[in-house]
Amino acid sequence: MSSVISSHSPNAVSQAVSVLNAGGLVGLPTETVYGLAARADIDVAVASIFRAKGRPTGHPLILHISDIADLDRYAHNVPSSALTLAQQCWPGPLTLLLHKTSAVSFLVTGGRETVAIRIPANECARQIIDQCGHALAAPSANLFGHVSPTTAKHVHQDLGDKVDLIVDDGNCTIGVESTIVDFTTDQPQLLRPGGFPAEDLESIIDQPIIMPSGESRAPGMLNSHYAPKCTVVLVHTIAEAKRALSEYDDARILDHWDNCPLYAASLYTQMRQADADGMTAIIAVLPDKSGLGLAIRDRLNKASLP
User: Fold this and answer.
1) pLDDT tens readout for residues 279-306
2) For residue 15, what are the domain limits?
3) Residue 104 covered by a domain
4) What's the whole-model pTM score?
5) Which positions ≥6 away from 198 have C-beta within 8 Å?
6) Alpha carbon separation from 259 to 170, 242, 283 (Å, rounded)
7) DSSP string, 136-155
8) Three-state DSSP class for residue 58
């Protein structure tokens, strides 16, 4: 079985670094969701991420760095607007899709010439990355397509002994994945709504971020994703939710539907708990499309698909 260590342990960072430098996998806490981390320059370790998750190798992974000074090591021809966002939004729940350098393995990028990069806001995660001396590749630490993990317990439930060490830093504060913006096209494109609202990013660069068309180049963008075992029923008002509740024998309405930060932070935990309690359905009130609401709607829509 994998071992779990508290982030408050004086040995947490050094133990995680030792595992990673030996080519192992670490359950890494971030502000968004827990990541399944490996040294991005050790191909055998990166390959083990895909095996542990059951993730197709054509799906790219996000590269996590600890300092903006490392950006040029992994990306080139970075547009000024992307650099502005990096300077003002990192560390934080924002991932930039950029042109990769030769330092990034095609195994990380799913064979693409682009790489997704971010700096997590979680201090423990940044310390681990910094002491490794190299970027970490880290998708969410769950089985492919399943509900994302926002606690160390979730990681252990999904991956068990497939992960060598889990660093427990409590609940993720944001609770949904990072926003992904593509800067490899003529206009920046929103590939995935997430923990950083798109309208806030637009105001920083004074430029619209458009919605893409066609196949996504971003990690974690299957049509069906983030899905619990129970049925996810989407409604627009709490009155509709109460009516829908009567149609199922074992169902519940997701809490915090009227408070987007709490809704996001608790969303995946509520989904997992519904499965653990044997619910046949969860009723989810869709929030407005502004702020974090867009990310929550995206996760709920994907979770509701067969």
Assistant:
1) 999 999 999 999 999 999 999 999 999 8
2) 3-205
3) yes
4) 0.95
5) 179, 181, 190, 209, 294
6) 21, 18, 16
7) EE--BSSSTTBPPP-SHHHH
8) coil
- The full DSSP string for 213-235 is -SS--STT--SS-SB-SSEEEEE
pLDDT tens digits along 8-64: 999 999 999 999 999 999 999 999 999 999 999 999 999 999 999 999 999 999 999
Contact call for residues 40 and 136 (beta carbons, < 8 A): yes
210 domain-assigned: no
Phi, psi at residue 112, to the nearest 5°?
Answer: -90, 160
DSSP3 helix / strand / coil % (the chain, rounded to 5): 35, 20, 45
| Residue 57 burial (10 A CB sphere; 0-12, 13-18, 19+) | middle
Q: At 305, phi and psi to the nearest 5?
A: -80, 150
Q: Are 124 and 248 within one domain?
A: no
User: Rounded to 5 degrees, what are φ and ψ at 157?
Assistant: -60, -40
237 shares its domain with 199: no
- Write down which residue in 171, 187, 205 finishes a domain: 205
The structural domain count of the chain equals 2
C-alpha pair distances (Å), 66 with each of 22, 117, 192, 242:
20, 10, 22, 45
Inter-axis angle of helices 293-304 and 260-276, to 10 degrees?
A: 20
- Residue for token pair 């427990």: 168
Q: Which two tokens stand for residue 130?
A: 């910094």
